[in-house]
């Protein structure tokens, strides 16, 4: 998880109630646990198990990927902008500390 | 999704990921010979668990994906609830199932009413041609379903 | 060596080194070098490495050879008077960077790192005598590095119809070989008043795979910003946009929906540059203006050295016939290949991406390998990586990126590629891109 998450928001200064579209992608192997290593042993599974998006203190949604989610997981979602606040996104895998990204959303 | 906690190191064959919980069950079953083999029992179980006794409605939920997946390692899937979303009527949960993948439950979304929408796009890896299913549970208990068949052009999905 | 002062023509001045044994009576007349002259005589027993082509790969190899083999005699031959970077040149087209950003003096790195730079044209090789033929004379080598990039294979379209080739080259330049065509393309973009601008993409493998789409995005941005009633038609021989399929598709759809049309499976079948008509496997098109990118091949020097690979049917592959892990010619281990002219590496992915990043990386690897051979050490097989950033939006500036990682499959011993597409266009990737180019330029341009 060396590189920062890549985040795109359709409009960081939306009108109240406007639907904001967000795209987020991180670099992650999403090791399924089905692949063998050089010695023929299965590589231990390590996938992103949980993604969470909040606006300020308010949870928008969670996403729980399984092993069928592609590597370098991509998530696109929308939300209705009801308040200004920090859009906080957190990725948690099975090994490393969680990864976090923030974007300030200001109602115009 | 607690059950995945029971899958321990040596049993971490991905196919075992979605097996019913319980170490006894996980140990009594030998690992499948082909790790990419489908798991129809698990597909049925995940589907049944989500739907429960509801009768899924074939409207109100849309799923978009290519008919032909030229890169089975990253197949774009877009799902969204078309019904109006309000504080009192919203989508609680949405799952995507890949019927013939070794671990059919591709992912689960849990929406809060604060989102004001129920929409997401992700990318899946698919082990073979199959049908994808999206299921949404609304706050009033209704279950919505959308399905689409997809042909996987090349073999191997990078799992 | 005072006699060099008597030489009249300026290009010959730089070559006076080669006249060490010229008889004194030649002072009466200018000493004109001919291609048969021996130039750059050897000094003692220093290992001599001649590098043909001073781009990203050749200049990197020159620097590291001088550092890793302190007593080496390194000669870099380059036909252009100055260095022009392919990477960043799409941004230069629409003035995101200026000319000084992509165009650099080559004498400074030569002096800083201590190699000999000679502006000349390579015209052939006598490998049995370990000689390079140039427009200015013959040069001896112990090791030879070919890093001349690509050539435009117009004959794939026109056979030997030289009139059609010349018309296409001068009116619809591909601008994939620095640097005069870059100026022609920039003028074309600035003068574009509207209508259909066709871009034909070369079939893979070709130089800088994602860059034609970046070029389309940035020209489309110019069209959009200046409200030019124009469209861009991308005629792509591939079945889809690749690499970074989804990042580009999203950019085309969201940023330039009325400007860019991508036509897949459009292999050029007939091209009439005089009447501006093109027939492809995806249909026939007329154009008002065009950027016609013919298929790419290894630069002429690899053909001149007779080191082009052959396929199973004995036909030339168009690329260098080389050891995929050690980068030297299969038939001649004193000749190395660096950069875009390199041949196939693995049947899993074919060629390393023909990018500045790979050329820079392999330039360094080859310098290490030659240093190991000169010092009698074991030669280690090393793997490069690749990284490309592409600007898809100029306001705000947003980029996408693609990364390639390589490893050796222990079972087959073959090189395996992992490709990481970063499809979400962001402004922070622009910052990374500029940090990346700064680091690379400082690696071989001494800036």
Strand percentage of chain A, roughly?
A: 35-45%
Low-confidence stretches of chain B: 1-28
Looking at the overall shape, the CATH architecture of chain A is: Sandwich
Pattern of helices and strands of chain B: HHEEEEEEEE
Unreliable spans of chain A: none
Total helices of chain B: the number is: 2
**Would you state the CATH class of the largest domain in chain B?**
Mainly Beta
What is the assembly state of the chains in this entry?
Answer: heterotrimer
**CATH architectural grouping of the largest domain in chain B:** Sandwich
Helix percent of chain A reads under 10%
Number of strands of chain A: 7
Characterise the protein shown here.
The complex is a heterotrimer of chains A (about 110), B (about 160) and C (about 450). Chain A is mainly β. Helices cover about 0% and strands about 45% of the residues of chain A. Chain A is built from no helices and 7 strands. In chain A, the strands form 2 sheets. A 4-stranded antiparallel beta sheet of chain A has the order 4-3-6-7, with no helix packed on it. Chain A is elongated. Helix content of chain B is about 10%, strand content about 35%. Chain B has helices at about 25-30, 40-50; strands at about 60-65, 70, 75-80, 90-100, 105-110, 120-125, 130-140, 145-150. In chain B, the strands form 2 sheets. Chain B has a 5-stranded mixed beta sheet, covered by helices on one side. Mean pLDDT of chain B is about 80; it is low at about 1-30. Chain C folds into 3 domains: about 1-35, no CATH class; about 35-150 and about 300-385, FAD/NAD(P)-binding domain, CATH 3.50.50.60; about 155-295, 3-Layer(bba) Sandwich (FAD/NAD(P)-binding domain), CATH 3.50.50.60. In chain C, about 30% of the residues lie in helices and about 25% in strands. Chain C has 13 helices and 24 strands. In chain C, strand 22 and strand 23 form a beta hairpin. At the A-B interface, strand 4 and strand 5 of A face strand 5 and strand 6 of B. Strand 5 (about 75-80) of chain A pairs antiparallel with strand 6 of chain B, so a sheet runs across the interface.
